[in-house]
Amino acid sequence: MSTVVLVAALVAAGLIAGLFYAYACSVMPGLARGDDKTFVEGMRGINVAIVNPVFMLTFLGAPVLAGVAIFLNPGPRPWVIAGFACLVAMIVITGAVNIPLNNALESGGDDYAAVRAAFEAVWVRWNVLRAVVSTAGFGCLVAAVLARR
């Protein structure tokens, strides 16, 4: 059972790290090419679409499963703890920075240039940090799985 939980945490962490990576290297640069209205309306649509059961299962599941794996895995516990810490940091960044920015974007009105200016650079910077932190969490969980061999 401990291996199943650890591998499930690893898969969920990989999916979420990949999502934030995709935003950093394709979604946001792609939206940046559009005009202000396209950017704002595009992000508003994405912010609604992303809150779905599949995303929430991986986003919240990765740290929860890693946390459970800490207690189930007697072996490479330091790697699991490090992965868990990185995944919790990803949640904290999202809750403290990205979600409030998403909410401000949604309620920002129709002055698209002003809404975009208050959102884009800060959101992108913190998303890159989320990508790095979640990738580090994924890497730590990979190390934990490899250490069990």
TrEMBL record:
Transmembrane segments: 50-72, 79-101, 128-147
Keyword Transmembrane in annotation: yes
Keyword terms: Membrane, Transmembrane, Transmembrane helix
A Pfam family assignment: Anthrone_oxy
Protein name: DUF1772 domain-containing protein
Organism: Amycolatopsis iheyensis
